[in-house]
């Protein structure tokens, strides 16, 4: 039974990854300091193959100790939020996330030197490395030739990839770099540091387009407010699909020391997304009217991944449709609104 350490295990994507790891028979050590949501309960908390360590990833000595009997390290911890979060915490995002990634690499290097069986580190990058791209779909390698990201978050995620390659180059720490695109699913709540913004008659504290639109429709907003013109293209990828891709890459020999976009090949405009959400909640007979609010500075207009490499090399495809994702997400958000957690 292989043992995996994953940081950010109480987070949004982290929760899906832990569930998939346990389902596939791994032993899992999760590390989280609860800085984003505060203490949260997870479905796997009592699983005998799961151990939660409440600790800070920047504690290199503690992280090194935890890695001493691990086969894999998924470096998933990071400060992350919606688009308003990118603007509110521009400095904190880059400063804190640099400390987190440097500490993660330091721990992996120290553990490997001390005899850990650690096979490699799996780094969670982001589609935001393609923030300034001028070519679509964005394929692996484009991040090295297009202009760097404009947001501090996107720039730091690009730096994560440089950390991965540098740790390999100098200390022979093998790696896989994965770039999720627009994760959608359940389990994301209001973050402790989120700043509320007004969107029409509704206050929001997440600024992720899917839960925000669902909230507004559920709360009766009509006309429905969206950011920008609504022609922004996103590839909404189900958290369970992302987790499958991440876990598949762990022991795949062709994933060693390379990078993959992990996403659905199907894109939607924000207007199309709003229409699907409206129809699912209101029904097809209620007409949808949109109001276009001013977009944020870093609201990238087009984020389209090339997923050929993941399909051909790993055999991975994200297959969950937007319709099916929303069938899971809408009832969950409805309950979260009632409980006041979103």
How much is the radius of gyration in Å?
A: 20 Å
What profile does the largest beta sheet have? 7 strands, parallel
End-to-end separation in angstroms reads: 37 Å
Elements, N to C (H/E) = EHEEHEHHEHEEEEHEEEHEEHEHH
Mean pLDDT: 91
Indicate the structural class.
Answer: alpha/beta
Spatial order of the strands in the main sheet? 3-2-1-4-5-6-13
Structure description:
The two termini are 37 Å apart. Helix content is 38%, strand content 17%. The chain contains ten helices and 15 strands. The chain has helices at residues 12-23, 60-67, 83-88, 90-113, 152-171, 209-218, 239-250, 270-282, 308-314, 322-339, and strands spanning 3-7, 27-32, 50-54, 72-75, 120-124, 175-180, 183-184, 197-199, 202-204, 224-227, 233-234, 237-238, 258-262, 268-269, 290-293. The longest helix has 24 residues, at 90-113. Helix 1 (12-23) links the parallel strand 1 (3-7) and strand 2. The protein is an alpha/beta fold. The strands form five sheets. It has a seven-stranded parallel beta sheet, with helices on both faces.
Throw out a few tags for this protein.
alpha/beta, 15 strands, two-stranded parallel sheet, globular, Epimerase_deHydtase, 342 residues, 10 helices
What would you say about this model in short?
By secondary structure, the chain is α/β, with parallel strands linked by helices.
């Amino acid at each position: 039974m292989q043992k995996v350490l994953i940081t950010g295990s109480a987070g949004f994507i982290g929760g899906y990854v832990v569930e998939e790891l346990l389902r596939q028979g791994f032993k899992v050590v999760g590390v989280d300091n609860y800085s984003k949501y505060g203490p949260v309960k997870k479905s796997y908390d009592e699983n005998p193959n799961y151990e939660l360590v409440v600790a800070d990833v920047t504690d290199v000595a503690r992280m090194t100790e935890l890695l001493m009997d691990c086969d894999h390290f998924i470096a998933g911890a990071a400060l992350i939020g919606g688009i308003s979060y990118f603007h509110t915490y521009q400095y904190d995002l880059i400063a804190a996330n640099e400390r987190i990634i440097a500490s993660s690499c330091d721990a992996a290097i120290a553990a490997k030197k001390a005899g850990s069986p650690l096979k490699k580190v799996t780094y969670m990058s982001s589609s935001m490395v393609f923030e300034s791209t001028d070519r679509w779909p964005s394929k692996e390698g484009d991040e090295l030739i297009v202009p760097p990201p404009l947001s501090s978050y996107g720039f730091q995620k690009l730096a994560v990839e440089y950390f991965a390659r540098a740790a390999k180059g100098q200390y022979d720490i093998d790696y896989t770099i994965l770039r999720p695109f627009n994760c959608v699913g359940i389990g994301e709540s209001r973050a402790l540091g989120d700043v509320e913004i007004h969107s029409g008659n509704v206050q929001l504290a997440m600024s992720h387009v899917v839960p925000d639109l669902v909230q507004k429709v559920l709360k009766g907003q009509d006309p429905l407010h969206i950011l920008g013109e609504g022609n922004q293209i996103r590839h909404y990828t189900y958290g369970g699909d992302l987790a499958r891709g991440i876990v598949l890459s762990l022991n795949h020999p062709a994933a060693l020391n390379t990078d993959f976009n992990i996403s659905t090949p199907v894109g939607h405009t924000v207007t199309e997304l709003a229409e699907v959400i409206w129809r699912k909640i209101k029904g097809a007979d209620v007409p949808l009217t949109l109001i276009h609010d001013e977009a944020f500075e870093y609201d990238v207009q087009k984020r389209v991944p090339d997923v050929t490499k993941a399909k051909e090399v790993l055999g991975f495809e994200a297959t969950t449709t937007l319709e099916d994702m929303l069938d899971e997400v809408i009832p969950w958000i409805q309950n979260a609104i009632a409980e006041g957690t979103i």
